[in-house]
Amino acid sequence: VVANTGALAAGVLLRRLVLAETADPRLADRAVWLLALFPSAFVLVWGYAEGPFLAVAIGALLALRHGRLSWVAALTLGAGLLRPTGVLLALPVLVAVWRQRHGATGRQRLGGIAAVLGGPIGAGSYVAWASLHFDDPLIPLTVQRDLRGAPIDPFSRLYEGLGELFGPEVVGDGLHIPFAVGFLVVGVVLLRSWPARYGIFALACLATALAADNLNSLERYALNGFPVVMGLATVAGHRRLRVAVPVLSAGCMFALGVLASLGRYVP
Question: Does 197 map to a domain?
Fold first, then answer.
């Protein structure tokens, strides 16, 4: 129920955000559909935190769009508590706050600082609680290292992954490489077509997903950078791609969902 409610709220808030930025109802509708049909969107009905995380993350950037910094601080704090990628919300918030620094009052500057630090404080609070609860310092981070391997340069990992498109890893890490390349292209579209904060957040989430030896869950981590959906909606706005993009995305979601159910894919 919590996951489904979060996913529903995420769709509603995403439409409002796109409308606030573009005043284009068709683009807003496409974005909502592509959120529902995103390759890893099947996890939104599983017991994952993605639904609630997306709701608070989208809500945070919607509040940022309207200049409500106290709401931004509260929502980024919640995002950091829900998912470690909540830390990365500090980047788009910092971009927006920095651009508005001239003429800001002292109270507005304090609100901006709180908004930037919300995500890191939320994630840090969870790490501190888990470390004390399990009597194991930094356990959320060490557990991830055991599963995903040591941190690695994302560009080197992407280049290395091209060789995994062939051979025994084609349904392993090689499976994630076409998605990574596609998300990278969409990130460039975001930077060219939307305010910079959206592309920065989406690409930061993608880089974090690529910065590991094990690329499992890359598509889910990319979805955390929800502006990628806005970029897809922009791409789908081209007449020749209007049908192809949602059909391809839905097909990928179906295929990944089947592979996950068969135990061949880790979402």
Answer: yes
Whether residue 266 lies inside any domain: the answer is no
State the total domains in the chain: 1
User: Strand, coil or helix: what is 46?
Assistant: coil
Kindly state whether residue 70 falls inside one of the protein's structural domains: yes
* Per-residue model confidence as pLDDT tens digits over 233-262: 999 999 999 999 999 999 999 999 999 999
- Torsion sign, CA atoms 236, 7, 9, 116: negative
What gap in Å lies between CA 184 and CA 195, rounded to an integer? 17
Whole-structure pTM value: 0.94
Domain assignment present for residue 267? The answer is no
d(CA 207, CA 176): 13
The answer to whether 51 and 10 are in contact (CB under 8 A) is yes
DSSP 100-145: T-TT--HHHHHHHHHHHHHHHHHHHHHHHHHHHHTT-TTHHHHHHH
Residues 110-128 pLDDT 10s: 999 999 999 999 999 999 9
Instruction: Give the separation between CA 199 and CA 189, rounded to whole angstroms.
Output: 8
Domain residue limits at 84: 2-261
- Is residue 62 within 8 A of residue 72, CB to CB? The reply is no
Exposure pattern of 109-146 as b/e (b: 16+ CB <10 Å)?
eebbebbbbbbbbbbeebbeebbeeeeeeeebeeeeee
Q: Which two tokens stand for residue 97?
A: 């706050």
